[in-house]
Amino acid sequence: ELQLEHARQAFALKDKNKSGLISGLDFSDIMVTIRSHMLTPFVEENLVSAAGGSISHQVSFSYFNAFNSLLNNMELVRKIYSTLAGTRKDVEVTKEEFAQSAIRYGQVTPLEIDILYQLSDLYNATGRLTLADIERIAPLAEGALPYNLAELQRQQSFGLGRTVWLQVAESAYRFTLGSIAGAVGATAVYPIDLVKTRMQNQRGTGSVVGELMYKNSFDCFKKVLRYEGFFGLYRGLIPQLIGVAPEKAIKLTVNDFVRDKFTRRDGSIPLLAEILAGGC
């Protein structure tokens, strides 16, 4: 009631001449500004075309009230249609048939029925009403989500009930990605590991007692390049990959698995759960 009163006062504000009429553009502006939650994309796009129900596009106060009342009564409109069509969704109902059936309910006025069929004809001028026309006009039920958010929620709820095989396949996918990530990381830093290992394992050589082969890490790097070539920096890489790839993969897979178990509906994860996932 508060929203309807707000709309009535907006009409009075636009009706500067106190003629009881406003333009189609003013009508559209009021509806989009104040009652946008009641407008489907189709209705919003055709507000000016529907304004007043005539080519003059002048909207009277009675038409304005009937338009808003129709949007509020779309659930009743759907019920009236179902009494005529039964379980079928493709039945085309004439205005006369609809008006005759609406008499028993008494809440839908003839002007509202005229507006309903006028909006329906803006999409397909057949003079008949189908369930698709009603769905195109009917605003969202109170508490309902827009279709895109509802679809996202449906997919998320579907994900909560995933089959065991799907979870296994996802874990295998993550394991593979973890192996690749570990292999790339190990390959990138392997020359540093090789130099470190050579420095740790070197013994005194040469004619002078206690003489070392490498003076420092940089010297070791240069000598490996000089005497063994670029690929010498990667000597023994394969065993390293055999060990590192699954090790990294296990870490990332277990981390993701534990994080998934503690992920909230909004996608956030408590700090302690993140610490626990890293520890696992």
Automatic annotation (TrEMBL):
Lipid bilayer topology: Multi-pass membrane protein
Molecular function via GO: calcium ion binding; L-aspartate transmembrane transporter activity; L-glutamate transmembrane transporter activity
Entries under InterPro entries matching the protein: EF-hand-dom_pair, EF_Hand_1_Ca_BS, EF_hand_dom, MCP, MCP_dom_sf, MCP_transmembrane, Mito_Solute_Carrier
Annotated GO CC locations: mitochondrial inner membrane
Compartment(s) where it occurs, according to its Swiss-Prot or TrEMBL record: Mitochondrion inner membrane
Reaction catalysis annotation: L-aspartate(in) + L-glutamate(out) + H(+)(out) = L-aspartate(out) + L-glutamate(in) + H(+)(in); 3-sulfino-L-alanine(out) + L-glutamate(in) + H(+)(in) = 3-sulfino-L-alanine(in) + L-glutamate(out) + H(+)(out); 3-sulfino-L-alanine(out) + L-aspartate(in) = 3-sulfino-L-alanine(in) + L-aspartate(out)
SUPFAM superfamilies: EF-hand, Mitochondrial carrier
Protein name per the record: EF-hand domain-containing protein
Protein species of origin: Diceros bicornis minor (South-central black rhinoceros)
